[in-house]
Design a protein that fits this description.
Keywords: Oxidoreductase. The chain is α/β, with parallel strands linked by helices and 236 residues long. The chain is built from 9 helices and 8 strands. The longest helix has 23 residues.
């Protein structure tokens, strides 16, 4: 399960109506069908857009408000990491443009249009990503006086999802090597955390959460003996 899908399912359990944005209409439709079968009483609308195009994001938000209702929660989950194992300065400019367009510009477009769509008295913005996204999302909270906006950042470590597989150009051997020896997070781990952050009392705000595998000691440092040391069948 992907992170966005897992978060959508978690929110559905809380009775939240959803407006889902993604580039792939087929994937959006599949997620919607799965959710509606389990929770027929909630509304799920899908909008296939590339968030790098602000005109499409604007149109999707304008459609979502009358179809789903006021936007009380915004999850900025879209993200790209391309070109591994090449280092940044070794990359061609095109993947850099794509990553910037999705990770920075796309996030700002979504935050901008959502925060201006019939502003309600309470809003929660969650950004499951890193520094540039946190700065731009937090700026929105600073600039909307008179509203109970909560800006929260979820900073995940290594997660076993399509994100990392695409990062290494879908080379299974590379992803197996990357996760060797330890147990990464799964999408449901992050979805549980998002649900927890959103369901705290409105007078409190969890500003940021670092959610990583225990074996991930730093950004690129891992305890590769974790699995062997924690085997359930190991004789003590």
């Amino acid at each position: 399960m992907r992170i966005g899908e897992a978060i959508a399912v978690a929110l559905e359990k809380e009775g939240v109506n959803l407006a889902l944005l993604s580039r792939s209409k087929d994937k959006l439709d599949a997620v919607r069908e799965t959710i509606v079968k389990q929770y027929p009483d909630v509304s799920v609308k899908v909008y296939p857009v590339d968030i790098q195009d602000y005109t499409l994001v604007k149109k999707a938000v304008e459609s979502a408000v009358p179809e789903v209702g006021e936007i009380d929660i915004l999850i900025n989950n879209a993200g790209l990491a391309l070109g591994a194992p090449a280092r940044f300065w070794e990359l061609p400019v095109e993947p850099i443009r794509q990553m910037n367009g999705t990770n920075v510009s796309g996030l700002m477009y979504a935050t901008y249009f959502a925060s201006n769509a019939r502003p309600s008295t309470a809003k929660s913005f969650i950004t499951p990503t890193r520094r540039a996204s946190r700065a731009s999302a937090t700026a929105c909270g600073w600039r909307r006086p008179g509203q109970n906006i909560r800006v929260m950042v979820l900073r995940p470590g290594c997660v076993a999802t399509h994100f990392h597989l695409r990062r290494v150009k879908y080379e299974q051997e590379a992803i197996d090597e990357f996760f060797y020896g330890y147990e990464p997070l799964v999408a449901e781990d992050l979805a549980d955390t998002v649900r927890f952050m959103l369901t705290r009392t409105e007078r409190t705000s969890i500003k940021a959460v670092d959610w990583v595998p225990t074996a991930q000691r730093a950004l690129t440092r891992f305890d590769r003996e974790w699995n062997e040391r924690n085997r359930s069948d190991r004789t003590m």
